[in-house]
């Protein structure tokens, strides 16, 4: 197992290298010029060119890529073209809100969606099943920003229970942290809950048809024990896979959610950087996202062995 | 149940002490700025949000009052001698930078030199300037080759202000960003608490010595009456509106026009015009390539333009939210004129379509680039797109973001090779008030603003205005410039809209000025 983990971790290196090349190339060929954004309307073309030179944007692709790669290998992601701050500092400033939002959403989604899916499978064909599936369709169909606006209107504007926007660091207390994040987490979690609930239901239905479930019933096992000890554990592999895939969904959704609720996270940092063509920031954040995604997949692979001892690497 | 009740019990045990004491919080103005503050150097970038930050931390030698007159600010005053070939400036006593150092004449000289390399206005005057030099700690002078009556206007302008930095910072190349934000203005920038994209903070500078005169535009006493100014970046307008309604924010610089009725309905909010100038719409042609290298075609399009359609698209139907302004100079200013602007009063699609045919439009492709992430400019673009379609032109509407547009507009290639035919932008009224810094009126070919119009007569008139001996002479040249511009059409003026701000009723001391500034404001 240890050898496997080491192998997988080492395998992330070529993956990250390909991602780095891809990201750098994509930005190179994408339209947009930070020098023109910086220079503004008053600048002459000569001014824009001077700024391009001072930023080193006039140098050949391979030279810039080589320098950037060399710095990355030393752990230096560069400096933002606009703010003059190190990209690592900007990421550090933004990582907590995004991480908080994703973790809370994940906890919320899993704790709601898995029981929902199990109950729907257990009560297949009843109104409970239909209600769960109806909710799932709704969760898939309604965009995150619409849910966000509705939640903000009801709970912040009308009831005045929660703030409309912003983020309070966890170090300032659990409740202020939760106060700011609960609405965004619910808004972002809708799609995720729908996805996990549907997969849980489908997998559970399949598992509940298995011989060993019938045997368990015949031996007098209780319904709760059958559902959660025998069936759910055997249905866990596809559910965990979907949860892992959903992390990418969360990263995408976080961009919208962070904008609607003015949460200063990595999603907004990415969008702002893209709009301004702040290349070092875009490259840094995308590399980070890719790395996180690779790690999540590794964690999921390892979890398989816990849920299904037959899986060995 | 109220939020505070809901969380009250938990807060009693779980919450640490609030970040600020009650009194301090009451003296913090929470602001939603018009954009994200990404750069701190007002010479390096022309972004308005950076200029607003600069007004908080830097001071100016002289500044514009509410009538547009230039008055002393950091300087006690100035004198001229030797037939206007020498200007002497003397700094006020007691001026200090935020790092504790005295403001000296050498700091002013270094700041002027750096700023002059980037400011288009000063670049026009620069050939007449022989030297800027410090005489002693408090006095510096300009030595000129020939008289420059507009010198203080350049130094005190609001469009690209000359902010004073310590010499060690101002000696940075004008095309490199400075690494420290140290000024001598009424507020200090809290760099350690700056999180670009989330918030930026300033604290009152206790060492600031304001002028004794009452505040008047950007002139007069810049007294800081708040302990802190805190900008929170809220990219979504609906969220910003909600934050204003619930009292989470105190001041919103640029509310979207669609949301003004919502804000006005709230009794706790004041929605008023604070900026002294409107924002002007600009439709710019690419003069290098067909079809708009043909002045007849430009004139045909202008005949179809109705500024009211454009302004309604941007600012809605509220009649006091916008105005038509059918000339190239800012309405309400000394040079404002409609002399020769008859073409903008035609406003007739059928006549324009007939003229278009007569002047030889042969179906050439027109590429209009519209920035979807810039609501006002996008609205202007959509109106032009509709108009060109109705004129029967072969339109390709390219939806892009602002970052793409500002790069594409640099291209001088034909549309088949990634060029463009029409773009739109907006400009503050200040920038269009005088020929000397009227960017869209330059017609010096490849050195002109994107679109590169070329017309020797416009350039000649512009120079004639600079050399005009008096206001009457300037006005006469201004009229001639407007007439010529309406023949050549380097761009089509699209009217202007007012951009109100919103603030909570307990914010006091709000005054009108050419820029958004926060001195004199207090929170009751």
Automatic annotation (TrEMBL), chain A:
Its main location: membrane. Residues 95-304 form the ABC transmembrane type-1 domain. GO terms for molecular function: dipeptide transmembrane transporter activity. Keywords: Cell membrane, Membrane, Transmembrane, Transmembrane helix, Transport. The keyword Membrane applies. The keyword rRNA processing does not apply. GO terms for cellular component: plasma membrane. It is found in: Cell membrane. It is a multi-pass membrane protein. InterPro entries: BPD_transp_1_N, MetI-like, MetI-like_sf. The chain crosses the membrane at residues 9-30, 99-122, 134-157, 177-197, 235-261, 281-307. Belongs to the binding-protein-dependent transport system permease family. PANTHER family: DIPEPTIDE TRANSPORT SYSTEM PERMEASE PROTEIN DPPB-RELATED (PTHR43163:SF6). This is ABC transporter permease. It comes from Siccirubricoccus deserti.
From TrEMBL, chain B:
CDD domains: PBP2_NikA_DppA_OppA_like_16 (cd08502). The keyword Signal applies. Gene3D superfamilies: Dipeptide-binding Protein, Domain 3 (3.10.105.10), Periplasmic binding protein-like II (3.40.190.10). Its main location: periplasm. InterPro entries: Peptide/Ni-bd, SBP_5, SBP_5_dom. One of its GO terms (biological process) is peptide transport. The keyword Signal applies. It holds the Pfam family SBP_bac_5. One of its GO terms (molecular function) is peptide transmembrane transporter activity. SUPFAM superfamilies: Periplasmic binding protein-like II. It is found in: Periplasm. It comes from the Bacteria. Residues 69-411 form the Solute-binding protein family domain. Residues 1-21 form the signal peptide. One of its GO terms (cellular component) is ATP-binding cassette (ABC) transporter complex. Keywords: Signal. Belongs to the bacterial solute-binding protein 5 family. This is ABC transporter substrate-binding protein. The lineage of its organism: Bacteria, Pseudomonadati, Pseudomonadota, Alphaproteobacteria, Acetobacterales.
